[in-house]
């Protein structure tokens, strides 16, 4: 579980929009053993991980969970769009009818 601000998801979404990463790109994280759970609720924009490293083990997540396809514009808060210039530029290129949610 992240810190709740969604910046990892935004960074991943931006990288997907730019073609820098794909569904096949592995995502890894480090956590404490006590943070491992079988499942957690997910939103469509949540970035899932493929490999988890703890102090005592390395876990390969299987089956590989789906990753967000890029920025999900209709779920992006307009405040984030106003605050982050690269999102403004990507929104201009996007075919999204509404580039953010109020």
Summarize the structure.
With 102 residues, the chain is of the alpha+beta class. It has helices at 7-17, 78-83, 85-93; strands at 28-30, 51-53, 58-60. The chain folds into two domains: 1-69, no CATH class; 71-102, no CATH class.
Which helices and strands appear, and what pairs or packs with what?
Layout: H1 7-17, E1 28-30, E2 51-53, E3 58-60, H2 78-83, H3 85-93
Parallel strand pairs: 1-2
Antiparallel strand pairs: 2-3
Uncertain runs are none
Average of the residue pLDDT scores: 91
Oligomer: single chain
Alpha carbon gyration radius: 15 Å
User: End-to-end span in angstroms?
Assistant: 25 Å
The figure for the number of domains is: 2
| Count of helical stretches | 3
Number of strands: 3
Helix content: 25-40%
* Sheet with most strands: 3 strands, mixed
Shape: elongated
Side by side, the strands of the main sheet go: 1-2-3
What structural category do the secondary elements indicate? alpha+beta
Strand content: 5-15%
Query: What is the ordering of alpha helices and beta strands?
Result: HEEEHH
Written account of the structure:
With 102 residues, this protein is α+β, with helices and mostly antiparallel strands. It has two domains: 1-69, no CATH class; 71-102, no CATH class. 25% of the residues lie in helices and 9% in strands. It is built from three helices and three strands. Strand 2 and strand 3 (58-60) form a beta hairpin. The mean pLDDT is 91.
